[in-house]
Write a structure and sequence with these properties.
Helices cover 42% and strands 15% of the residues. It is built from 13 helices and 12 strands.
Length: 337
């Protein structure tokens, strides 16, 4: 059976462009001609059931989240919900727990109809097949926070590379040369870009990047705590003086590990986090602010424009929002623990 992925490959265009042509959305004449030619050569017959999914608007939008217990996501969801409500849409949330089988269930739910558009805040490269199957339906999709960079899908993300660079530069400016890094979820563009920013700052300062000082945190308190405790058990001459955690949740684990090891922050170990979650102010954690509410708000605005066919630009929108360094006390000036 011919799929729109086959058509895209034959025409030399993206899957999303094929979807645009099949659903009479605006693309250039040249792109449309290529797609129609490929359709003809492959004898493609569109799925009429899928076509009928958008005949009637249900005024319902789905937001797919990877983990509703993670305090990063309520602000993003609130941004989505506020714009949805302003425009007469109901928002439903689907929690995948970052499990592929849960995402498959969400995709099937969307395919059954009743949803006008979809915001994915959980997308990773491992989800490529599921996301591509969504693009075969006429339902508009927007990435929020996470994205799959190899797919031409509209997205709203934060500038995590610059945020990672600025965080590392702050530690370096405070005199640290021995810096460990706690990385987040493997395969997430968010974690990847934060790490790239860190590495770039270290390289620019001609400081060593030690593989044994890269801790796998999995965006999880316990994993971070255990990984940092192992680092701190090294001899005093062979342990980092600073830790850059690529999420605040992992930074809290790192802070507790330092405390339980009988050390002080920032005297013995400086710590910087990422996200600027609600608890970081009381912890006096230096961190990088991510505009979570604005990511959700702009992603929803983008999606509703697509639903209402207001987006007449055939190019894909990739909005990248600025991050900002929030300096508190875990990198200098005052003891926290």
């Amino acid at each position: 059976m011919v799929t729109i992925k086959d058509i895209a490959r034959k025409a030399g265009v993206s899957v999303a462009t094929v979807s645009y042509v099949l659903n009479d959305r605006p693309v250039s004449d040249e792109m449309k001609a290529k797609v129609l030619k490929a359709i003809d050569e492959l004898n493609y017959v569109p799925n009429e059931i899928a076509r009928r999914l958008r005949v009637k608007k249900n005024h319902t939008i789905a937001l797919v989240l990877p983990d509703i217990t993670n305090p990063f996501y309520p602000d993003l969801a609130k941004g989505c919900q506020d714009v949805a409500k302003e425009n007469g849409f109901t928002l439903i949330m689907i929690n995948t727990e970052d499990k592929e089988e849960q995402l498959s269930g969400a995709v099937n739910q969307v395919r059954q109809g009743g949803i006008d558009g979809l915001i994915l805040a959980n997308a990773m490269e491992k989800d490529m097949a599921e996301v591509e199957s969504l693009l075969e339906t006429p339902i508009p999709v927007v990435f929020a926070h996470r994205s799959i960079e190899s797919l031409a899908v509209d997205s709203v993300t934060a500038d995590n590379y610059s945020g990672g660079y600025e965080a590392a530069r702050h530690l370096i400016a405070n005199g640290h040369e021995k810096i460990a890094f706690i990385e987040g979820l493997l395969g997430s563009t968010v974690s990847i870009n934060r790490k790239k920013g860190f590495e770039a700052a270290m390289n620019d300062a001609e400081l060593p990047l030690r593989p044994d000082w890269i801790v796998e945190g999995k965006t999880d308190y316990d994993t971070s705590y255990n990984g940092v405790m192992q680092l701190l058990n090294s001899s005093s001459n062979d342990r980092p003086t600073a830790i850059f955690s690529s999420s605040d949740l992992m930074a809290v684990g790192a802070m507790d590990a330092v405390k339980d090891a009988g050390m002080f922050i920032p005297d013995d170990v400086a710590i910087i986090g990422y996200d600027d979650l609600f608890m970081t102010s009381s912890l006096q954690l230096t961190t990088v602010h991510v505009p979570r509410y604005e990511i959700g708000r702009q992603a929803m605005q983008m999606l509703i424009e697509k639903i209402n066919d207001k987006d007449t630009n055939e190019s894909f929108q990739n909005i990248v929002l600025d991050t900002s360094l929030i300096v508190r006390n875990t990198c200098g000036s005052q003891r926290v623990y």
